[in-house]
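**Polypeptide and fold**
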Amino acid sequence: MLAMATKVVSDYGKVLALVEPGVYGLPESLLPHARDSIRFAILTLLRELGPEHPEVKEGLRQGYVYLAQFVIDDEAEIVSRGQSGVAGGEVDDASTESAMRIINRIKLDMERAVEEMRDFP
């Protein structure tokens, strides 16, 4: 099980290396494995790693939190259109509002993940 968790996290890490930091609403189709599988793999590795690996554990915790950035592809498209419109000066209230709702949900999900990691042994 540890080898599989390592592979899942490694595959996820490769995706994270390719995405731009700070971007909200990444398409879930970019994930190499199901979100729950990645989450389980991260938790498995966090349980197995000893205290002599604080940097690795911190990277796993950050990856766990960042998983909230990935949303279903339709929502990712809404966020992308909303951000592009605002950046281009074209503010469509309906699309901007939809994008902001998704972004706010992502932020809440990230906050929950931070709390989970804070409470994780």
User: Anything to note?
Assistant: The chain has five helices and two strands. Strands lie at 26-27, 70-71. The mean pLDDT is 91.
